[in-house]
Amino acid sequence: MKRILTAVLIILFSAIINGRDVLLNIYAPGAAGKMVQVYNQPDPIMAGNTLLTEILVPDNEMLSLNIDCNDICWLRIRYGVYDLLLVVSEGETYEFELPYYKALTQSDRLNPFFKYRFSHIKVPGDNNINNTIRYIDSLFFQYSGMITRSIYLGEVVDDKEYLLESFAGIEKMLTGDYTLKYFNYRQCLLKMIFRKQRQPGREDIELMNKEYLPLMPAFTDLVNQVYNGYLRRLASDSRTDSLRVYINYGGSYDNIFKLIHRQGTIRDTALLEFVILSNLYNEYYMGGFRKKAIENIFIHMSGNATDKYNRNLAYVITEKINRLKPGNITPGFMLRNRKGETYTLDSLSGKFTILVFGAMGLPETKAELEILFSWAHEYSDELNIVIILLDEDFESSLAELDYNNQNYLFLDGSESSTLIHDYDIRYIPTFYFLDREMRLIQSPAILPSENLRRLVVPKLGSGIINDIRD
After folding, report:
1. Binning pLDDT at 50, 70 and 90, where does residue 60 land?
2. pLDDT tier, 468 (very low <50, low <70, confident <90, very high otherwise)
3. Domain at 334-459: CATH architecture
4. 233-280 pLDDT, tens per residue?
5. CATH 3.40.30.10 occupies which residues in the chain?
6. In CA terms, which of 2, 105, 241, 364 is 20 to 30 Å from 205?
């Protein structure tokens, strides 16, 4: 509770200093004693977002929050199974009701692929920006979905041009510069989808270069659609294939920038920086260019990009790709065992360590641990086995296992909301193999079959492995 109160006070203080506070008066039915979290809008490249504040809903189910905002801000309110979108303007007050609270189940919470129920909050008032954007998006996704299904599933769409005309009719109902821009970006993308265009037209290019709005989803959706794979296409074209040399072999960022800029479709500097970041982030995982070269470009852009948003985005990307890179120290934690004793990475150093993230609520965890335990005890002098349980009830999850006589360390991860993010856990169980200084050897490690044993034992200095069975 102290941490929550501190976070709220920091936000209140920041808002007072900057004079840009937004007041949210929220009714949260059925949520007394539950947590409401407010995040910023996920970034348009990695889809990562930052927790701004979290607060417990009081018994009367009414709460007020002050959020610091400059101009127009996109917020995400995480609330049980719901992920709710809200657009706010600095200095404004918003009153609204959340859906009736529905808690996450244990299987939801432990499922890395769980999808929250997403919707755009309806705010009282006909002219509220949220209701306008809600309406624009509802038609956009309805019509684009119809065309997509017609292309890939063969569903018949009787009059495509009528749908375009119907969408265009929204424009005359719009008031305000921001919503008009939002509509224009959505309309541009809808036309490209309808006409199966790969390349943008002249009007589309002019629209994207007119103003850089990386915090507006309609803008970044259009840019990502148009320029997805753009650098790879340039590098594969004989007229611009020097781009691959520039990227892969240490060519200056200025040369890379100038070559792309000469193609003529991206004239705005900030937009071009965003396209470079977006493309290279995808290529980092797809293997289109050398990883080390891409890392160096991200580092350069984090300090030298002309646009502040792009510099920050480059920094966040750099931090993410290095967080779990082999050879780096793993993200820290401070967790307790069943006796209440606290463990950190430093307290585990000195031995090699297999770090396991699991949940006894999932049968895969128990099955894989049994395989691991069948051989790991032979190397207890050199190897730590640390199991971080993510179940809601630590004691109950331990009761399902009878390993009291084993030299394994079980830690309570139920209260750490950052573990799944920090360790990029995409499935459970997940294993990491660390050296004596808590640096990653493999991230993530393969499951504890004989293959994991083949990886671990040579590192322990035990030489050739015998008696490996399935």
Report:
1. very high
2. very low
3. 3-Layer(aba) Sandwich (3.40)
4. 999 998 888 999 999 987 678 889 999 999 888 999 999 999 999 999
5. 334-459
6. 241
> What CA–CA distance (Å, rounded) separates 446 from 322?
19
Alpha carbon 268 to its chain centroid, in Å, reads 27
Are the CB atoms for 348 and 386 separated by under 8 Å?
yes
* Structure token digits, residue 41: 């809008």
Q: Which range among 50-59, 81-90, 239-248, 396-405 shows the weakest confidence by mean pLDDT?
A: 396-405
Please list the alpha-helical segments (H only) found in 105-128. 106-110
| Integer Rg of the chain from CA | 26
Q: What is the reported pLDDT for 370?
A: 87
Query: Cβ(40)–Cβ(111) under 8 Å?
Result: no
Among 326, 344, 321, residue whose Cα is nearest residue 432: 326
Strands (E), 348-398: 352-358, 383-389
Q: How far apart are CA 383 and CA 385, in angstroms?
A: 7
Please write the tens of the pLDDT for every residue from 122-171.
998 777 899 999 999 999 999 998 888 877 777 777 777 888 899 999 99
Contacts of 160 (CB under 8 A, 6+ apart): 147, 194
Q: Is the dihedral of CA 55, 57, 58, 60 positive or negative?
A: positive
B/e letters for 357-386, b = 16+ CB within 10 Å, e = fewer, are bbbbbbeebbebbeebbebbeebeebbbbb
Count the neighbouring beta carbons within 10 Å of the beta carbon of residue 401. 18
**Which pair of tokens denotes residue 450?**
């004989």
Query: Contact 436/442 with Cβ under 8 angstroms?
Result: no
In whole angstroms, what is the distance from residue 438 CA to residue 440 CA? Answer: 6
Tell which CATH architecture fits domain 2-124.
Sandwich (2.60)
Two structure tokens written together for 211:
């103003």
- Cβ(280)–Cβ(289) below 8 Å: yes
pLDDT at 336 over 80: yes
